[in-house]
């Protein structure tokens, strides 16, 4: 690894923190309404980030080409989000403010995010709720009609707006309606069932993408004045995760190969409340929303190996370990902390359930206090889902939960304008690295996606167009031919190997390795082992993968092969990043760097920076560029939730 001297300019505006965005808005250049129609923007992704961006850009007058691999834009993974969306409206009058939300987010991310980005996120949170209410999103309301709030981890106020356990779905429907209005107006052209397989860069600027029609197999070129990636996170690198099965890193990783920097890939979030894995043939894990920790109490037996049924374990034999260790935040300790605490009790032999890999999330007391009916009103669909999957009734028996891969804070590097280091390539939502540092607070991902798409990108992309000379973008450009040839060549190679193993079997093998060596806790020895082992998996993959069918029609095996190949390369980058970051922070827990109480121990002297990886083509040894993080408004402190 070579550390380059290159200085990355995050283009953070001058001035006081609380005026940066307003000033920037006033200073950014504009494209006049008549000229907007001359620009075309490619938006890859139709989740909350891509959907909100596409709708808003089209509403402004730009021509938008919108891509997703699902059969409908409405089925993007954002639809799975359950628990809620944060905004510091302070409807509860419980002491919330932009400053408090900002502080909670910086601290939650373990002081590894940019102050200016986080402030803007929290500042715009209140407008997002107004925007969504205006679209008709049916947020839960109090009896008197005001919007209801609940609490999520890492906060001592209630700032999470929700629509039962279907918040993502309702927000996405709002967004989708806004998109469809523009489809109808002819400003958005939809390309569902279309997978982006490469980015086209000419003279250092992003000018288009290469796609494959997933039904006909046709490989096509699309050119534009700017490309926006809103392609979600890479949590499926672990194979088992709460993400939809289709979530993948291909778009981001192809962009990385074309020169975009990949930042902090080792920052992954392991969510504490998921249904535990139960067997070797499982392909997916299910989230039980963090909102459940408002009323559910987490516990295990005080005695290792205790085989008694939960209702046979009296209170004095139970260890409500989050309430014991973190009395101020209790069951609402942030995700990284709650996950590690669960791992510790399981490692001590105090895990529950048939596999011993799990802890209880118990609603007995809440049902006693509020009544089953009220609990059902808040969480009914989550309880039903749990019962359908486990065949256990959580109104009667405590849920069993265990941490699982859920979200990725790492992603493509972007500046304050959400533009990558490649001019013309913007990255929004979970696909970028920008706002959550080393650990994201629950209910802030939906917020980030919508803030990026509705309120930030529509300004900053105009500034880019107004500042940079308009390109004569055309698919005849030689770079398009080269990119198309790369894609076709890769497809041909997959189809020709004709080995013995399915792409999925390689993905599962890789995921297990990454989970063991670069999951909830990591150490140098394990990471080095993974870095040695991954090239072997890569070689086996390229020699022995079997892709059935042809390239000319729907071929899931071919899709999986491409995605697995990128996950293999990303996994190696993740492990290198985790090895290089010799500290613990947020979700990145290096066993060598912990306090006497087993908490993450940061090294601010050496690691108060964003790690940005620059690809050296297919050479697995990438270069590293550091973006220093400057804190002017908060003091770097040891995170404590006690
Ligand atoms: C089960 C679950 C529950 C969650 N609950 C919450 C919650 O309550 N609150 C919260 O704040 N966050 C929650 N999250 C996190 C949140 O849902 C995600 O971070 C967020 O929805 C990501 O939105 P996005 O728009 O960035 O990406 P996504 O919604 O993942 O959308 C990605 C889009 O990109 C497209 N795409 C990707 N690659 C390609 C390609 N190569 N070619 C073409 N198209 C491509 C996909 O088709 C899709 O349209 C939850 C996550 C999970 C897994």
From TrEMBL:
Q: Which residues form the FAD-dependent oxidoreductase 2 FAD-binding domain?
A: 41-446
Fumarate reductase/succinate dehydrogenase flavoprotein-like C-terminal domain location is 507-641
The record's annotation in Pfam families points to: FAD_binding_2 (PF00890), Succ_DH_flav_C (PF02910)
Q: What keywords are annotated for this sequence in UniProt?
A: Cell membrane, Electron transport, FAD, Flavoprotein, Membrane, Oxidoreductase, Transport
Report the catalytic activity: a quinone + succinate = fumarate + a quinol
The record's subcellular location field reads:
Cell membrane
Instruction: Give the principal location in a single coarse category.
Output: membrane
Q: Which residues cross the membrane?
A: none
InterPro entries according to UniProt: FAD-dep_OxRdtase_2_FAD-bd, FAD/NAD-bd_sf, Fum_R/Succ_DH_flav-like_C_sf, Fum_Rdtase/Succ_DH_flav-like_C, SdhA/FrdA/AprA, Succ_DH/Fum_Rdt_flav_su, Succ_DH/fumarate_Rdtase_cat_sf
Q: Which residues form the signal peptide?
A: none
Q: What class of enzyme is it?
A: oxidoreductase
Q: Which cofactor does it need?
A: FAD
**EC number from the UniProt entry:** 1.3.5.1
Coiled-coil region list? none
The protein's name in its UniProt record: succinate dehydrogenase
Query: Which family does the record claim for this protein?
Result: Belongs to the FAD-dependent oxidoreductase 2 family. FRD/SDH subfamily.
Give GO MF terms, alphabetically.
electron transfer activity; flavin adenine dinucleotide binding; succinate dehydrogenase (quinone) activity
Membrane topology, as annotated: Peripheral membrane protein
Gene that this sequence comes from: frdA
């Amino acid at each position: 690894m070579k550390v380059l001297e290159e200085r990355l300019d995050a283009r953070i505006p001058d001035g006081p923190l609380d005026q940066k965005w307003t000033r920037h808005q006033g200073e950014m250049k504009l494209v006049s309404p008549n000229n907007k129609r001359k620009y075309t923007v490619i938006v890859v992704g139709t989740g909350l980030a891509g959907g909100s961006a596409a709708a808003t850009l089209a509403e402004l007058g730009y021509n938008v080409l919108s891509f997703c691999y699902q059969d409908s834009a409405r089925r993007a993974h954002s639809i799975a989000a359950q628990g809620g969306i944060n905004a510091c409206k302070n409807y509860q009058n419980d002491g919330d403010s932009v400053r408090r939300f900002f502080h909670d987010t910086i601290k939650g991310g373990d002081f590894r995010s940019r102050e200016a980005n986080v402030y803007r996120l929290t500042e715009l949170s209140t407008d997002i709720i107004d925007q969504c209410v205006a679209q008709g999103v049916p947020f839960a309301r109090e009896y008197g009609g005001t919007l209801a709030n609940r609490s999520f981890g890492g906060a001592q106020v209630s700032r999470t707006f929700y629509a039962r356990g279907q918040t993502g779905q309702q927000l996405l429907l709002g967004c989708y309606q806004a998109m469809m209005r523009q489809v109808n107006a002819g400003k958005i052209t939809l390309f569902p069932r279309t997978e982006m397989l490469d980015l086209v860069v000419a003279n250092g600027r992003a000018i288009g993408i290469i796609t494959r029609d997933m039904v006909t197999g046709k490989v096509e070129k699309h050119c534009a004045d700017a490309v926006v990636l809103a392609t979600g996170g890479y949590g499926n690198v672990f194979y088992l995760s709460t993400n939809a099965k289709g979530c993948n890193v291909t778009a981001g990783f192809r962009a990385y190969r074309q020169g975009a920097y990949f930042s902090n890939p080792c920052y992954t979030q392991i969510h504490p409340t998921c249904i535990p894995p139960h067997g070797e043939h499982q392909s997916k894990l299910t989230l039980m929303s963090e909102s459940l920790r408002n009323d559910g109490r987490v516990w295990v037996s005080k005695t290792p190996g205790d085989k008694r049924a939960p209702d046979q374990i009296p209170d004095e034999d139970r260890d409500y370990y989050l309430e014991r260790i973190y009395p101020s935040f209790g069951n609402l300790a942030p995700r990284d902390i709650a996950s590690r605490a669960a791992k510790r009790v399981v490692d001590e032999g105090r895990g529950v359930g048939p596999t011993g890999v799990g802890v209880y999330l118990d609603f007995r007391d809440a049902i006693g206090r509020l009544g089953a009916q009220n609990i059902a009103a808040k969480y009914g669909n989550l309880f039903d889902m749990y019962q359908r999957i486990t065949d256990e009734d959580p109104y009667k028996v405590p849920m069993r939960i265990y941490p699982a891969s859920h979200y990725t804070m790492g992603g493509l590097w972007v500046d304050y304008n959400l533009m990558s280091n490649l001019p013309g390539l913007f990255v929004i939502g979970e696909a970028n690295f920008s706002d959550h540092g080393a650990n994201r607070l629950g209910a802030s991902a939906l917020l980030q996606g919508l803030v990026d798409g509705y309120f930030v990108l529509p300004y900053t992309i105009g500034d880019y167009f107004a500042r940079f000379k308009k390109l004569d973008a055309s698919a005849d450009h030689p770079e398009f031919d080269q990119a198309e040839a790369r894609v076709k060549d890769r497809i041909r190679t997959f189809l020709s190997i004709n080995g013995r193993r399915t792409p999925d079997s390689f993905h599962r093998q890789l995921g297990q390795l990454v989970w063991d060596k670069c999951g909830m806790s990591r150490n140098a020895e394990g990471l080095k082992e993974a870095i040695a082992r991954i090239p072997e998996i890569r070689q086996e993959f390229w020699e022995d993968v079997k892709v059935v069918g042809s390239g000319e029609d729907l071929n899931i095996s071919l899709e999986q092969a491409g995605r697995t190949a990128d996950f293999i390369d990303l996994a190696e980058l993740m492990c290198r990043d985790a090895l290089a970051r010799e500290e613990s922070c947020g979700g990145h827990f290096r066993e060598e760097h912990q306090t006497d109480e087993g908490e993450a121990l940061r090294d601010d002297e050496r690691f108060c920076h964003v790690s940005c990886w620059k690809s050296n083509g297919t050479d697995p040894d990438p270069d590293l560029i550091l973006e220093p993080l400057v804190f002017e408004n908060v003091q770097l402190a040891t995170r404590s939730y006690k």
